[in-house]
Amino acid sequence: MASLTRADVEKVAHLARLGLSDAEVGRLEGQLNHILEQYAKLAELDTDAIPPTAQVIELESILRDDVARPSLGRDDVLANAPETFEGRFVVAQILGGDRS
Q1: Angle CA(71)–CA(73)–CA(77) in degrees, nearest 5?
Q2: Residue 100: its pLDDT value, please?
Q3: For residues 25 and 13, is the Cβ–Cβ distance under 8 A?
Q4: Which residues 6+ apart lie within 8 Å of 84 measured at CB?
Q5: What is the DSSP letter of 42?
Q6: Residues 65, 67, 69, 73: is their CA dihedral positive or negative?
Q7: Burial 15-49 (b: 16+ CB within 10 A, else e)
Q8: Would residue 52 count as lying in a domain?
Q9: What pLDDT score does 20 carry?
Q10: Total number of domains in the chain
């Protein structure tokens, strides 16, 4: 796998609108090349026997079950609104039209 040159890092920094010093460009060149070397090692691994949905860690749902339960009645909810009209909330108008 080809490595990045200083010019490559400077070009990417320019495209990303990053103002990097010469020292930062040099450090990033080394770090990015190290990342590419590690990726090349990973690319050599035989992954044919690993299903595409395999995970490194076990996944578990952190969401609660979606269970229907009693809620407030319409009149109770509307009682908390600063303004209502014919059983609906009144909100600031953002488009043309009337209240119907």
Answers
A1: 95
A2: 57
A3: yes
A4: 78, 90
A5: H
A6: positive
A7: eeeeebeeeebeebbeeebeeeeeeeeeeeeeeee
A8: no
A9: 95
A10: 1
State which residues form the domain around 30: 6-43
Nearest Cα residue to 3 out of 24, 25, 34, 27 = 34
Question: How far is Cα of residue 45 from the mean position of the Cα atoms in its chain?
Answer: 29
50 vs 29, 43, 53, 56, 65, CA distance in Å? 33, 14, 8, 11, 31
pLDDT beneath 50, residues of the chain: none
Q: What is the pTM of this model?
A: 0.48
Domain of 17, CATH number, reads 1.10.20
Nearest CA to 14 out of 35, 31, 28, 30 is that of 28
Instruction: State how far the Cα of 72 lies from the Cα of 88, in Å rounded to an integer.
Output: 15
